[in-house]
Amino acid sequence: MNQLDALRQWTTVVADTGDFKQLSISKPQDATTNPSLILKAVQKPEYRPLLDETVKKHAGKPLDEVIDRLLVRFGTEILSIIPGRVSTEVDARLSFDTAATVARGERIVALYKAEGIDTEKRLLIKVASTWEGIEAARLLEQKGIRTNLTLLFSFAQAVACGAAGVQLISPFVGRIYDWYKKSAGAKWDEAASAGANDPGVKSVREIFNYYKQQGIKTEVMGASFRNVGQIKALAGCDLLTISPELLAELAASNEPLEHALDAKTAATGDARKVSYDEAGFRFALNEDAMATEKLAEGIRAFAADAVKLEKLMQESGK
């Protein structure tokens, strides 16, 4: 049994890509996308026609709507290959606007429904884990729209998402690792900070254990991996979303894989329940320099890629 098959014994494997033609190789259960992945995909010759066709078909409609239609086009292609769910992201520029995020999420759902997709079972609306985003997710969940809270770097964000009853959270392992490595500079010890000692791995493990101890139903999906060591250290997490390159690396290895996280064992802990109102959440996030910086950086990067995608569409329509 290779490591990818071994991982599947305990964890739902998710492909982190907009390149849906690779999905038949790795055979994931679910798939996630984001603006950066879609932008990367449409710059490849095999995917550019999807952008051109979408722009032509919906000429004259607002640009934000055409982008959503492109995201849904990719999502429906992905759903024709995988058996599970796809995550489609709301424009990151709406990360601090609850009402606009809800409206955009509802429109994406409507577009998928128009394609005959059972959105309650097969779609997750992806939203940034700001206070406003989490509140939007709470409202969407109340409407029966399942959500995936992304750009999650802190325990406080995870606690607020659990309280909001979101379907799934995506803590970013690799970006947490990046921050601590950069912060340490020459003092960084890669060997001492690998595997279970990786700061990103430790963050996800703390969230996973807390959710299981408190009986929180929100699914934990580790994301943003830099190496297979991080993935192996989280074997047993509810889900892990992994790039095609790292999926291939796992599939190529027949070394034993240990069961690192176990929900039943985690549930026996006695962690104190934590809760936040808005002021408490904002202060807790502010106290976490890594989370504050990486959340802001992530939103900026996704927003910048959304702008690049718009420019490609405008050029296509000329």
Question: How would you describe what is shown here?
Answer:
This protein has 318 residues and is an alpha/beta fold. It is built from 16 helices and eight strands. An eight-stranded parallel beta barrel has the order 1-2-3-4-5-6-7-8, surrounded by seven helices. The longest helix has 28 residues, at 289-316.
In short:
The chain is of the alpha/beta class and 318 residues long. Helix content is 53%, strand content 11%. Strands 1-2-3-4-5-6-7-8 form an 8-stranded parallel beta barrel, surrounded by 7 helices.
Poorly predicted segments: none
Number of strands: 8
Overall pLDDT metric: 96
Helix content: 40-55%
Q: Helices and strands: which structural class?
A: alpha/beta
Q: How many whole angstroms does the radius of gyration measure?
A: 19 Å
List the secondary-structure elements in sequence, H or E. Answer: HEHEHHHEHHEHEHEHHEHEHHHH
Major sheet characteristics: 8 strands, parallel, barrel
Q: Which helices and strands appear, and what pairs or packs with what?
A:
Blueprint: H1 3-7, E1 12-16, H2 23-26, E2 30-32, H3 35-42, H4 48-57, H5 63-79, E3 86-89, H6 98-114, H7 119-122, E4 123-128, H8 131-142, E5 147-152, H9 155-164, E6 168-171, H10 173-184, H11 199-214, E7 219-222, H12 228-232, E8 239-242, H13 244-251, H14 263-266, H15 278-287, H16 289-316
Parallel strand pairs: 1-2, 1-8, 2-3, 3-4, 4-5, 5-6, 6-7, 7-8
Key features?
318 residues, 8-stranded parallel barrel, 16 helices
